[in-house]
Design brief:
- This protein is mainly alpha-helical.
- It has a domain of 67 residues.
- Helices cover 64% and strands 0% of the residues.
- The two termini are 31 Å apart.
Length: 105
């Protein structure tokens, strides 16, 4: 019997990677601050990066919620476009996908 697919795993990994990179950038930037103008620019860039991470996180959560709703409705694992079964390999890579390989092209 196959292990249960963790629909959060790919999203968690991507989010942790982005947050790690953001923290590294923030540390690098703070170490190299030369002037107040530079600090303001860095703060603005970091704010934009944080907003982008938040938006991506919210998008991933919406996708996960939609996938969970499809599970409850018995529609998870079937293409929303053509109705064909979505391959297990694709679902393991993209657990929140709504399209089969053929329809996503």
């Amino acid at each position: 019997m196959r292990d249960t697919i963790d629909p959060n795993a790919p999203f968690d990994a991507r989010l942790n990677d982005v947050l790690g990179r953001l923290r590294q950038m923030e540390g690098d930037f703070q170490a190299d601050i030369v002037s107040a103008a530079d600090a303001k620019l860095i703060d603005r860039v970091l704010d934009q990066a944080r907003i982008a991470v938040e938006q991506a996180s919210e998008q991933h959560l919406r996708q996960i919620d939609a996938a969970l709703a499809r599970m409850v409705d018995g529609e998870y694992g079937y293409c929303a476009n053509c109705g064909a079964a979505i391959g297990v390999e694709r679902l393991e890579r993209l657990p929140a996908t709504i399209l089969c390989e053929r329809c996503c092209r």
